Amino acid sequence: AVVSTQSTGEVWNFTTGKIRKDLRYQAQDQYMLMDDAVSCMNFSRDSEMLATGSQDGKIKVWKIQTGQSLRRFEKAHSAGVTCITFSRDGSQLLSASFDQTIRIHGLKSGKTLKEFRGHTSFVNEAQFTADGHTIISASSDGSVKVWSLKSTECLSTFKPALGSSASEITVNSIHLLPRNTEQFVVCNRTNTVSIMNMQGQIVKSFSSGKRQGGDFVCCTLSPRGDWIYCVGEDHVLYCFSVSTGKLERTLTVHEKEVIGISHHPHQNLLATFSEDGTLKLWKP
Q1: Residues contacting residue 239 through CB under 8 Å, at least 6 positions apart
Q2: DSSP alpha helices (H): ranges in the chain?
Q3: For 257-274, how does the pLDDT look when each residue is reduced to its tens digit (9 = 90+)?
Q4: Is residue 179 within 8 Å of 222, Cβ to Cβ?
Q5: I need a surface site. Which of 23, 41, 157, 220 has the fewest CB within 10 A?
Q6: What is the pLDDT of residues 238-254, one digit of tens each?
């Protein structure tokens, strides 16, 4: 696991809960440093590289084994980076930002290769779809958009939230279902998380059932997509079964506002992190 403390990236052993001292640079109290606070990070598929995005719009790519900076994108965005992910082959980075754009950067060239414009507020997440031909994004403008990777053209726009104020309801994140690539989970600032298809239809919905404090702030899926885990404004973790649509269990995870949640890629392990300054690991 990697933990960001202000402008520092640290590699921790999640089983011991300690900083990994088998990495020589960390044993010498040297860490992966950014110029400004780290706002997002992601591993390459082989776990050899780590990409970090910061509040000043810069992106850095690091070699985990040595802590060395492999590539810097000084002007990746004109505002803070909200989300970053590697392409399947690890040759490109996809990023989203508070500057309302989505961009693709080439690791070999060190240049920004493509830009996707059309959202009218912060872009909170962007993901490559499984076929590699499109990108899907979520924004504070209340929409989910599907883009052509080749032409950068917006192919579809969906408004997941229903009701008169739907346009203002922030879409926090989107999560492609591992075993059904035509569907994805949408988490927005309501008490309901939904599964949508690529035609913009809501296939299934899951609710916290709360009128007050039950709006979701973040969400993640189990590796096979059998479970959806959401955290609400009430600091409670809600666990939904995708097959039955039922809320299976709830658990209070932090005392202060929860910033994010992530699932281990292979093991039955959840991580939550909060404004209370802690990162906690949970066995669902």
Answers
A1: 227, 228, 229, 247, 248, 249, 250, 251, 284
A2: 24-27
A3: 998 999 988 888 899 988
A4: no
A5: 157
A6: 999 999 999 999 999 99
